[in-house]
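Format notes (please read before filing issues)

Several people have asked whether sequences and structure tokens are stored in separate files. They are not. Every record keeps both together, in the order shown below: the sequence lines, then the token lines. Line labels are part of the format and must not be stripped during preprocessing.
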Amino acid sequence: MARPKKPARRKSIRKNQPPRLKHPAPPHPELVPRSLREQVYDFLRAEMATGGLQPGAFLDLNELAKRLGVSRTPLREALLNLESQGFVTVLPRRGFRLNELTLDDIRHFYEIIGALEAAALRTVGFALGPADFARMRTLDAEMAMAVAERDFDRYYDANLAFHDVYLRHSDNARLVAQVQLLKQRLYDWPRRETMMQAWEAHSVVEHEEFLALLERGNVEAAADHLQHVHWSFTVQEKYIHAYYFAAREGTVPTRGDRCTDESAE
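Then the structure lines:
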């Protein structure tokens, strides 16, 4: 005769006992958690790019900390990072001021970017192949369509990607990071809502000339074109004046003049 089964024991239930929390799964090895300082930095950069924070303005740390729901510590850390990148200046007993973009700044940035990109190209140019050239032609065509449609964001993204085709071949991470940072200073402070079609169309033609030199294997001439034409302040100066300064005022600034929303397109 089979033994009767014992009744299952009931688990004791305590009243008002909080539910147990399961331990979260370990993070995916490819996912890197972002610190609070990094999140605040990203917020500030986005505000600068969209015009929420204006060049020349002083920052109210208490108001910003309250707005973000954070203490002043990660905010100050993020601002010190921006200071190291040239976006802000720390003034004793006055706080943080957002730097304006001067004509000399733009001239210096063009000189540095041109020299660095040309140096990178001389190192990696002979490693570029048909797939790279095809990618660059596709991106240049994308830029041309964006110019015709007056879509600056589309043009901007394709333009950066065009240059990244050869920069990504460089193993000099510091060089590439510096180039990217200076381009942010030029284009994202703040990001313009409109474009100068004449300048952007001219850049498309310069890209075509540059790419033709690369396809013929003339890396040195392509590097010279990059530095002394495409990133030449002298060659691009009339467009720079019109884009950053003179569009609304109808004047040409002198060295040391500042680029703010009141004087830039």
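For reference, the curators noted about this record: The longest strand covers residues 88-91. The two ends are 96 Å apart (CA to CA).
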